[in-house]
Amino acid sequence: MTFIHQDLYSIYLLFILFIISISFVNDRKQMKNLILIPFKTKESYSYLYFQRNINFNFLRFLYLIIILFVSNSFIGILFKNLKIADFFYLLYYMLCFFIIKYISILLIGFLLKKYVKFKKILIINIDIKAFISMYFFPILIIISYSNLLNTTISILISILFITLLITTKIIYIIKSNNFIGLKFLDIISYICIIEIIPIIVLYNILK
Fold first, then answer.
1. pLDDT top residue among 169 and 183
2. What percentage of the chain carries pLDDT values higher than 90?
3. Rounded CA gap, 207 and 203, in Å?
4. What does R_g of the chain's alpha carbons equal in angstroms?
5. N or C: which end of the chain has fewer CB within 10 A?
6. 52-111, pLDDT tens digit by residue?
């Protein structure tokens, strides 16, 4: 991104760091458990984690901010010669995308009379994206201020981030189906309607 060293983008990255810090202050135990999910060997650990943390609280609101801002930066890397104004327009589109998507998840659950089950999907959706975003945040800083990585590598890392954001979330939703309580056909329908179609729509809007 051509504006990468401008002060406004530095403030943007500092804001992400601030939100991550506030998240730890708000609930250090849950943050620690979230970050350790990939390193736990017990198959039941992720099940127990989500079973104990199923409410949309202030911490998950902070998660959403982290996901939005980190995702926006990595998607911005995929664009060449992106101006700072265009970057914040992209942030606006990403915000609308996330709001519509998450409301759609709850709305579909309500219409299918499976609100609680789809709420659990939403919680898993948010938490998995949050821990991936936090793991990639240091990499984002390196990409932003280091000359060690060329444009091609930065783009590949961005693609890797987006791929993990999608696939890891779907894997955890499938693995946690005993906790969610949906039929396998419902999970497949969810993946097609709420995951694949919105991404295709967003891609066509941004290209």
1. 169
2. 22
3. 6
4. 17
5. C
6. 667 788 888 999 999 999 999 999 888 866 788 888 888 998 898 888 888 888 888 888
d(CA 122, CA 108): 11
- The CA dihedral of 187, 120, 159, 87, to the nearest 10 degrees, is 130
CA dist., res. 157 & res. 163, Å (int) = 10
Identify which of 48, 18, 13 has the alpha carbon closest to the alpha carbon of residue 34.
48
Does residue 1 carry a pLDDT above 80? no
Provide the pLDDT confidence category of residue 130 given band limits of 50, 70 and 90: very high
What are the start-end ranges of the H helices in the chain? 7-26, 28-36, 45-52, 58-77, 84-111, 115-145, 151-175, 177-180, 184-190, 197-206
DSSP sequence for 24-38: HHH-HHHHHHHHHGG
Q: Look at the chain and report how many structural domains it folds into.
A: 1
How big is the CA angle at 81 (ends 76 and 83), to the nearest 5 degrees? 70
Q: Is residue 2 part of a domain?
A: no
